[in-house]
Amino acid sequence: MKPQVIQQYDSPHQFEPLMPAEPLLAPLLEKASDLMRRATALGAASGKTAQSELRKLLRSMNSYYTNRIEGEHTRPSDIERALQQDFSSNADLARKQRLAVAHIRTEALCEGEVDRRLQTEGPEAARWLYSPEALTWLHQELFRDLPEEDLRLADGSTMVPGEFRQRGVAVGRHEAPTAQSLPRFIERWQQVYGCVRRGEASIVALAAAHHRLAWTHPFLDGNGRVTRLHTHLLLQAGGLTGGLWSPLRGFARTEARYKALLQAADEHRRGDLDGRGNLTQAGLVQWIEYLLDICIDQVEFMTRQLEVQGMQDRIRAALAYEASAVKSGVREEALLPLHYLFATQGELGRASFKAMTGLGERVATSTLSALLNRGFVTTDSPYGSLRFAIPRHALRFYFPALWPEAEQDQALVEGEIGVAPAPRDAPRRGYPR
Q1: Which of 13, 367, 424, 429 lies 20 to 30 A from 129 at CA?
Q2: DSSP characters for 251-272?
Q3: Domain 12-305: CATH superfamily, name plus number
Q4: What pLDDT sits at residue 2?
Q5: Which residues of the chain have pLDDT under 70?
Q6: Pick the CATH number of 308-417 from 3.40.50, 1.10.1060, 1.10.10, 1.10.1330
Q7: Closest Cα to residue 139, out of 164, 112, 115, 105?
Q8: CA 22 from chain center: how many Å?
Q9: Could you give the angle at which helices 199-216 and 182-193 cross, rounded to 10 degrees?
Q10: CA atoms of 384 and 382, how far apart (whole Å)
């Protein structure tokens, strides 16, 4: 049997096609249009303050899921502790905690930079994300705070954050472009995808760019994390996420298919009917379809989660559980002001909040203290106005099945401290598991 010949990639024409041929674009553009329509409508049902709190939660979830794809995840409660600078004495667990915190910090920082550029540069913000400078910046931010031992690779060398690789690498059966040719591949990647300006076409382009960036494998390590975060930021720059959803959750929940389709799109052209480039056009189209379907699925899921009337029922279920099982001092009469904070754009003064409960002054004051202690509301000062908050223990009520692993982990934590388990049916009714 002849040994397998691995092709050496040293010229950018070798990762063509970068976009599907015109006849294959129509159904992809239609899906992209559907995504734009659904994403634009998302979020109208909840207030900006509630969305800001949800955005913080989703960063932790995104960190968990992107690291899970790499086999480097830890319990959500361990991520929560790491955010409080409480790291495990177990070296491997502490390393995973540091990776999680690094992603959360980087996602927040990069989202802020994209928002700043959108205000000053408009559509050019997305074009900047395709630059080599943006790629190396993302990589540097993801890994810059990690100690040297966390950056050590399997061969004993140490990865330099923000530096394109200086040697060849192989990923499974795929031999990535030579280090010498890598700048030319990235330049071609930037030229093609960074210049696609039309709405639907730019979404198809970011889906294709995800694969082709992963294919080039520009860094010694961290390529998957950088590529997924890059796609997340491109969707934000396109005005599609508002911080309320991300494809990272969908990638992790369909991990086997995610990896299989990425690998399938690595393959060479399958014959004369498979495009005119060196790589398979059919595989690229299948990958793009998958990414668009994942995005639409995540938008639909979050649309249901943020529906105002449904949220009222879920807040009621959370308060009932607190009153009956936890006995924390939280009362069900807090439903009206909590739902008001979720559904509106602003805050509530403490006096107004207590008045909306309909309780007497003394009971309302103790109820508000319990709500603050349990994280149902937040404030900037001891006497400041109140904002809607999302405590981790209420996640299974407020946003059921959003982050199932965090729900299960919270149940374990509550079992450890002797709290009765939450009922599993009422708050989940009508939502997928």
Answers
A1: 13
A2: HHHTHHHHHHHHHHTTSBP-ST
A3: Fido-like domain (1.10.3290.10)
A4: 42
A5: 1-6, 43-47, 345, 416-433
A6: 1.10.10
A7: 164
A8: 31
A9: 170
A10: 6
